[in-house]
């Protein structure tokens, strides 16, 4: 693994129309480390970080090219220069998927008692769009509503949000969490020492802090990361 891999990562990022910050959020590698790969200041990339790229749903199609220079379009293994043809081919073949839509609200204010329905409604989305534009596995996401004003202007009252249950790579972002049987939508900021600041985008609400170890308990649990929103104008 050499500088060539760093340049390949840059080619993938640019072909996908991503900034370093956006790529960092998707694969859990810091923007500073990505910059050092792309510029060649770090000459090698460890297998653990390489796996974060090639095993991501959005970037798995580049796995063969990334490690060997080879492509096999017939089995979906391409280079960034093949992306446009790949997109058009897969758009024609992709059937829509029905995502579960829970008619419950994740409160962006004081919190609402919410019980997930056993049989949710569904809303149709294109799998290719979910994988390549949103960067999620369609089987890992669901839809719900936002209630309250504490996440304004980012999320308005009544906004639909798409939540990704896959939160293995916890980083700064907007999440849905369960707190004392309430569903909350809040911005989480990672701080040193395993501390997480829980914030509202509306400055009228005060932040509070938790630890990573608290995120998998009976009173507090992480439901998923908000990856998309559809809002009224």
Automatic annotation (TrEMBL):
The keyword DNA-binding applies. This is Helix-turn-helix transcriptional regulator. Gene3D superfamilies: lambda repressor-like DNA-binding domains, Umud Fragment, subunit A. One of its GO terms (biological process) is proteolysis. Keywords: DNA-binding, Hydrolase, Protease, Transcription, Transcription regulation. CDD domains: HTH_XRE (cd00093), S24_LexA-like (cd06529). GO terms for cellular component: membrane. GO terms for molecular function: DNA binding; serine-type endopeptidase activity. Residues 9-53 form the HTH cro/C1-type domain. PANTHER family: FELS-1 PROPHAGE TRANSCRIPTIONAL REGULATOR, PTHR40661. The keyword Protease applies.
């Amino acid at each position: 693994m050499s500088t060539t891999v760093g340049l390949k990562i840059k080619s993938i990022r640019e072909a996908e129309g991503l900034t370093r910050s956006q790529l960092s959020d998707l694969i859990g590698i810091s923007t500073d480390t990505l910059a050092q790969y792309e510029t060649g200041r770090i000459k090698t990339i460890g297998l653990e970080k390489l796996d974060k790229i090639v095993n991501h749903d959005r970037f798995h199609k580049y796995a063969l090219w990334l490690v060997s220079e080879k492509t096999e379009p017939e089995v979906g293994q391409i280079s960034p220069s093949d992306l446009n043809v790949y997109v058009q081919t897969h758009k024609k073949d992709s059937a829509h998927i029905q995502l579960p839509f829970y008619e419950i609200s994740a409160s962006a204010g004081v919190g609402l008692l919410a019980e997930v329905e056993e049989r949710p409604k569904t809303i149709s989305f294109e799998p290719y769009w979910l994988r390549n534009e949103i960067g999620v596995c369609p089987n890992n996401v669901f839809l719900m509503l936002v209630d309250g004003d504490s996440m304004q202007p980012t999320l308005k009252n009544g906004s639909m949000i798409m939540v990704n249950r896959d939160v293995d790579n916890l980083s700064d972002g907007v999440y849905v969490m369960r707190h004392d049987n309430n569903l909350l939508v809040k911005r989480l900021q990672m701080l040193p020492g395993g501390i997480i600041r829980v914030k509202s985008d509306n400055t009228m609400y005060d932040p509070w802090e938790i630890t990573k170890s608290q995120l998998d308990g009976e009173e507090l649990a992480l439901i998923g990361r908000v990856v998309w929103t559809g809002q009224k104008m």
